[in-house]
């Protein structure tokens, strides 16, 4: 077995498959692009779905990659087990309709056991096979020469995630030796393939040969695929003879840095060791996810990051780290991964800013959470309670990020127990919400062979031409090629060449007409989409009969295209303006370019101010006025990068690319259509800027005609308002509105004063209505007041003047009820408590509440029950005194 670092092993894998004719693809962003079914890229095959289901044809049907991935469904097991991680790398080789089982198996064996490669001892390798997959069993046994004692039939070896490609798989296990055996002899899981520590799964070969159809049946795939996955962390632990994945060079430098920060030793005890592992695991995930554009937030993937960071901070506290420390680990992660992921080093400053900001905020939240725990404890003790509800504990966990174990520490000192069953019920509700929010992991389309089995060439000429005459080469009706299309049918058409732009890169597809030589409209093009080889596929409504091999005249809707081009070029100007005003971290995270408006999503972890929006808008309009020529250069990807062209977030680019240049101001890789000069855009106006979650913001804007129409609409509204106010000029409107606001404020203050006088007048009357129950005096009355605040003010006045021993006031307010109860010292000496009183009477108004011994309040939704509630006060006093 070779002695290799993790970096050397990763590169060796990629070099091996490059020798076998594979195209090595760079690891995709962890944030899925145009795939709403995934929260994160969670496997190597997740980035290959478009190839597997036939949506896109790859340049090379043989692909290899080392794909960074995130899975957080087993987050509680991180640090506890030897191999659970939130971030991991999946080494994989893929065949898209090219080689199949025999080559995949032979190459896996060669890489694992070949002297030039990993040189693992073959006698330590075991193979599991799906029982019905006799072909695979035969290849392992007869071609590779595996002894049958090392071949295990495993019923679970069938990879199936719902509709789409699926098939049997074959797993390779490494025998780590008897010293790792954690199960007794004869245990049902004590075998290669079972749940144990001795036999470690290191590689899974999936033979994707069936289509799982919506009716539950399985049909042979038109194109069979290979999908393999070997976890880098696992194979490194084997090569480096590490007890767990954490004792490898992927994690130990991080752990060593935490030792230095904390003053604790990794091996001093098992409890602390878990904290070291959790921190080392989570910081890798945070660094890579933030580098790829994800940001902490309260929802979606942002919530995952927030949770990981908070878990890291809490485990830091267990290691006596009380101050922000996670930023000190970022350079360590960057150094470990630099050979394959240099972008982490490049983004270090931004990552540090995000993590430090989030860590400091959490420490403030922890302090607030601690105050809330103490407040709850005081309330419980005041009421004589010894158990804190699971709902309260969950609220501390969910709202304040206050971990269960920290709540346990605080309440244990006060001899208060936790209702764990109730807490678990709330946790399960949260898990269910998370499961509902996650769509099915499957989501591959059922593979169609239509445009994969038949190569259909079609050239896009729309960069320079708006119309052309072209031969109709294919008509697609539903999922079949046909020779003709009848009037009234909706079909898809492919021509030998076309000026119609297919929707991609955020730009919508063109619309237009298909005509014959006599200028008769034969069909209307409603949209255009891209085929597996990038062909424009025209979605049309047929008006007159169409025939394959006939020539037709194709003409796009020119006006619509020009409007789209103006909006598209404006997104390039806006992108650069965002970076100039907000910072280099503001990267495009999606866009939609239509004829009516543009939508631009970007990464940013703070609010965008009005002043910043004005700056960006002014900058874009300045570039429009400068009448800068917009040029497009076709070149290779390396030359484009040398030119300083900006690659958009998450996009995949081929060897040949188009670079859109707007002088030296903006240089972007882009396949869309654009104006020839910025002055054609005319005008740029931002309509709105909002947050859309997970550290992503959205700008909606309009250009040219759209911007002009919007400004006309706003001016019309202003004129209408001005007319209603009988103003001579729009310039007088701000002054008039300011005057109205002042008037409203004065009226409101006068209203407040009247309410206060009314309340005081009532108080003079109410405080004379004193009843006696036993030896206690009681005031229990309904009053007319503005709100709960006035009730409290009356309670303060009652307390200052000692009008009675007990006060209960009720208020009806817009279909609801407010109640307050206050007890003086004499009432409390009889062990009466305001909190108990309010809880007794609030059910009469279908409400609830609580509070201290001397003061409590409640709300309800049944005003008709207020007289009964007030009447019940006397009964309560009699029963409890």
TrEMBL record:
Molecular function in Gene Ontology: alanine-tRNA ligase activity; aminoacyl-tRNA deacylase activity; ATP binding; catalytic activity, acting on a protein; transferase activity; tRNA binding; zinc ion binding
Cofactor note text: Binds 1 zinc ion per subunit.
UniProt-annotated location(s): Cytoplasm
Chief localisation class: cytoplasm
GO BP of this protein: alanyl-tRNA aminoacylation
Residues the record lists as binding Zn(2+): 568, 572, 670, 674
Domain Alanyl-transfer RNA synthetases family profile: 4-713
Parts forming coiled coils: 413-440, 737-764
Catalytic activity: tRNA(Ala) + L-alanine + ATP = L-alanyl-tRNA(Ala) + AMP + diphosphate
Co-factor(s): Zn(2+)
SUPFAM superfamilies: Class II aaRS and biotin synthetases, Putative anticodon-binding domain of alanyl-tRNA synthetase (AlaRS), ThrRS/AlaRS common domain, Translation proteins
Domain notes: Consists of three domains; the N-terminal catalytic domain, the editing domain and the C-terminal C-Ala domain. The editing domain removes incorrectly charged amino acids, while the C-Ala domain, along with tRNA(Ala), serves as a bridge to cooperatively bring together the editing and aminoacylation centers thus stimulating deacylation of misacylated tRNAs.
Sequence similarity: Belongs to the class-II aminoacyl-tRNA synthetase family.
Protein name: Alanine--tRNA ligase
Species for this entry: Alkalibacterium subtropicum
Gene: alaS
